[in-house]
Amino acid sequence: MESADTARRRAALDLAIIGVLADGGLRRSEAAALTWGDVELWADGTGRLTIQKGKNQVEPATVAVTAATARALRDIRPDDVDLAAPCSD
């Protein structure tokens, strides 16, 4: 049985993943390729993702994320974030 902290962390990660997929209309592979360097979280509570490689995409694309998704990303973002690290670790 997982601990309460592990369950909360897993739930926060699930919310962030679902939000990123829904807000950005991303494919699984595009979401999995995101790093923390691709995530901008703004003071107004929203943010933006930069999609480096997408299907049929030549240039990076940016997509806005809602306040709920930005909050979920803030909840899972490590304090000592490595910008090249995958968002899902």
TrEMBL record:
Record key words, sorted: DNA recombination
Any GO MF annotation of the entry: DNA binding
Signal sequence, start to end: none
Keyword flag DNA-binding: no
Taxonomic superkingdom: Eukaryota
Tyr recombinase domain location: 1-89
One GO BP annotation of this record: DNA integration
Protein name: Tyr recombinase domain-containing protein
Source organism of the structure: Geodia barretti
